[in-house]
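Researcher: Quick test of sequence recovery. Tokens follow.
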């Protein structure tokens, strides 16, 4: 996955909150950056990778919640 230029990176080894704004990653600035640096397919792949990595760090977070957080917004219909 490309390194976002905005500094809105996840705390990958800790809680996957954004290092810049403290919100659950991907926060809005991170999503905007991901959208500008990935096409639709690259974005889905990158977010699946992120989801799998986050699921290992956050084993108590329901899968549905992780799916909503990492993947739902990448659906074209999600706006
Ligand atoms: Zn952020």
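Model:
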């Amino acid at each position: 996955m490309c390194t976002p230029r905005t500094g809105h990176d996840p705390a990958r080894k800790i809680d996957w909150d954004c290092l810049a704004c403290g919100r659950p990653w991907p926060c809005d600035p991170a999503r905007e950056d991901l959208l500008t640096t990935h096409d639709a397919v690259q974005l889905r792949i990158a977010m699946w990778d992120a989801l799998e990595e986050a699921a290992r760090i956050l084993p108590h977070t329901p899968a549905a919640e992780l799916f909503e957080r990492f993947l739902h917004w990448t659906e074209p219909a999600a706006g």
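Helices lie at 28-37, 40-57, 63-70.
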